[in-house]
Amino acid sequence: MASLQSLVFTVCCLILSTHLTGSEADNDHEAASLSYDEDSFKLGIETKRHFVMFFAPWCGHCKNLAPTWNELAKIYNKEDGSPVTIAKVDCTEHTALCADHEVTGFPTLKLFETGGKSFKRYSGKRDLESLKNFVQEQILGDGEAAAPGEGEAPAGEREESLIVLDDDNFDAKVARGVFFIKFYAPWCGHCKKLAPTWDQLAETFANRKEVSIGKIDCTQSTVICKRYEVRGYPTLLWFQDGEKIGKYQSSRSHDALKEYVITQLKEAAGGTEEEKTEDKKEDAEEEIQGKVQDLTVDTFKSFLSSRLVFVKFFAPWCGHCKRLAPTWEELASVVKDEDVSVAKVDCTQHKGVCDDHQVRGYPTLKIFRDGELLEDYKGSRTVDDLQKFVTKHLTKRDEL
């Protein structure tokens, strides 16, 4: 009987061993690439550069990359003198760590400088040669091949694509120069969606000395976020020589953000103050035409003060609002040549504005002239009917 139990136990062990081996093959948990948790990640990154793969075991692209990642690890992790460590983090086990680093897709590959305050996101090909070239370029900064243990760029000369700010370093870092900074919270859905685009923006301007792209976690850096009255996430602010110059409130696409940075740099580079002011006014008017304007508690009154504006008060979770959204965008395009603006207010973010205008349900549509309410819209929500409503109020003004 004992012999039979021993046999059964042996078979079970073999089955379990086979299952684990298969799982390890899927995730490629070999010794070459270091697997980090929250504690080991923090400890490791304090003392050395790290190229980290954030992954999920079920992710097909991660499985495909795993053997290549371990080949890369065999090259750089084999000796103490290597200038970089290759590591990985399982985001299904260490969700907080991945959230802290705004990982929104798998695999996400980031090369962190020593201390973890800055990083470069990798978005190129995932073959071994491309990954090696990327690591070597970051180590040398000139694209020449470098073997582990060879020279590294002097401190302060290495490229920092995204500046990570906090309560301790904010004032010193931002005191001189131009900064475009994202104020965010790791749990914020909009922040997670913006994260890869913000990384891409940082890479776009990585070699432009006249501007730095940064971010600050408001759940960790409450002093700075409170100072600049950050009440919603993400908040995107433009700084020059330590002073807040402006707040970005338009589309969060890479092209739109890039155009904003270029425009701000051009304005800072030349022209008299009067010319700059006039140009800003013209640019603002051009930007208004054909687009739905996002209004906030800070911009609502000033935007409505001198024009005819048709406003949609909405909540993102509202089904009727979601169905109206594309129609509202189309309406803005249809009336772009008319003397009217189409706008919207998110009542979950700007409750005070909605309360002031007695918004009781969503969507609520109101038309204003020079800041004064003209009429609530109660009709059909087709583009034609909405346009007729706008035209009626345009005609009334012409008749005055």
UniProtKB/TrEMBL annotation:
Record GO terms (molecular function): protein disulfide isomerase activity
Residue ranges constituting the Thioredoxin domain according to the UniProt record: 19-139, 140-266, 267-395
Stated family: Belongs to the protein disulfide isomerase family.
Coiled coil: none
Keywords recorded for this protein, A-Z: Redox-active center, Repeat, Signal
Top-level taxon: Eukaryota
UniProt-recorded name of the protein: Thioredoxin domain-containing protein 5
SUPFAM superfamilies: Thioredoxin-like
CC annotations in GO: endoplasmic reticulum
One GO process term, biological-process aspect: protein folding
UniProt-listed Pfam families: Thioredoxin (PF00085)
Signal peptide: 1-25
